[in-house]
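From the methods appendix. Each design record in this collection lists the tokenized structure first, followed by the designed amino acid sequence. Records were kept in a plain field format so they could be parsed without special tools. The example shown here is representative of the layout used throughout.

RECORD:
FOLD TOKENS (340 positions):
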């Protein structure tokens, strides 16, 4: 008698460009298909990354939820779970953690696991009550860092033994050096061949602290006018950040490259990597920078200190301190031994 693979459904609002979705894209295509059949339910929209999952052989379904407690939508999701003979349901981020757990219970699915990706999702008493109320519907939780786990326990009072820390992963493929491609990218962006390039990757939204990065560029430029700063990512703050670069006298040193799919080229072009977020569950881009062997300057927030040992595997600065970030960048640019 042959045993069929377990049907595993991941529930998330949308497969848009973000850390949670990128972590899924790293892990899910590598799951053993002889043991698990993976599918994804999107409750808001599929998003621009859906095609990448589908190309990897992972079906993506739009299962709309007008609100996380809408009874009709919960029954519809439960019906889909029954149709797909779901054995395990993984729910990701607050809204899906609640609605996915409720729909799974309606469908009779006992194996439900909640994913905790951020320490700033439980922003109201109502959200905390909802997580407590649905706690019994889950077998347990994965948290992407100790910081996220500890914050969740403090906020909800849920037993810490129900939560396992499961750090994000990065692509295990070996780095293939491509100096020619990196040189071409410099030329495309108008960066001189010998200019040190400091990179930052992330959505252009306030929580990512790109304003801190731009102000830090102003600090660095006074000591290293040859340095160039590249921001990779899109978002609503673009015009504000361009104005801030001009205000700090670095409009000609800061390059906004937009949202890109050719990230290996950028990591190979960077001489130094920075992360200036105001909060982070556990940063994917930090892992990617480590994978590419880059020296790193990052703000001491969330799970970042669990990835970076200050003074050994990178330099940490206080959140919001563009002066500390800038001085740390200068230190690594001027001290090749420490940067190594």
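DESIGN:
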């Amino acid at each position: 008698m042959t045993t069929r693979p377990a049907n595993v459904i991941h529930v998330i609002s949308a497969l848009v460009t973000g850390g949670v979705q990128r972590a899924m894209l790293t892990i899910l295509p590598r799951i053993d298909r002889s043991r698990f059949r993976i599918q994804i339910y999107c409750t808001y929209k599929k998003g621009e990354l859906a095609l990448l999952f589908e190309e990897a052989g992972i079906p993506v379904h739009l299962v709309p939820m007008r609100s996380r407690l809408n009874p009709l939508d919960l029954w519809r999701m439960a019906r889909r779970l029954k149709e797909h003979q779901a054995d395990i349901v993984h729910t990701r981020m607050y809204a899906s953690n609640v609605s996915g757990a409720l729909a799974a219970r309606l469908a009779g699915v006992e194996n439900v696991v909640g994913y905790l990706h951020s320490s700033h999702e439980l922003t109201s008493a109502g959200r905390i009550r909802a997580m407590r109320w649905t706690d019994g519907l889950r077998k347990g939780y994965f948290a992407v860092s100790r910081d996220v786990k500890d914050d969740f326990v403090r906020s909800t009072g849920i037993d810490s033994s129900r939560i396992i820390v499961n750090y994000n992963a990065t692509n295990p493929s070996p780095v293939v050096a491509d100096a020619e491609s990196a040189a071409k990218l410099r030329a495309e962006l108008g960066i001189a061949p010998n200019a040190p390039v400091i990179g930052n990757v992330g959505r252009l939204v306030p929580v990512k602290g790109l304003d801190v990065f731009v102000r830090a560029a102003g600090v660095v430029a006074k000591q290293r006018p040859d340095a160039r700063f590249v921001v990779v990512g899109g978002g609503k703050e673009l015009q504000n950040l361009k104005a801030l670069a001009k205000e700090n006298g670095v409009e000609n040193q800061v390059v906004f490259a937009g949202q890109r799919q050719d990230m290996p080229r950028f990591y190979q072009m960077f001489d130094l990597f920075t992360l200036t977020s105001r909060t982070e569950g556990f940063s994917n881009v930090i892992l990617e920078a480590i994978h590419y062997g880059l020296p790193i300057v990052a703000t001491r927030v969330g799970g970042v200190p669990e990835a970076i040992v200050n003074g050994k595997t990178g330099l940490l600065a206080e959140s919001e301190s563009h002066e500390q970030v800038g001085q740390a960048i200068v230190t690594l640019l001027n001290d090749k031994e420490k940067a190594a």
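APPENDIX NOTE: The first helix runs from residue 19 to 27.
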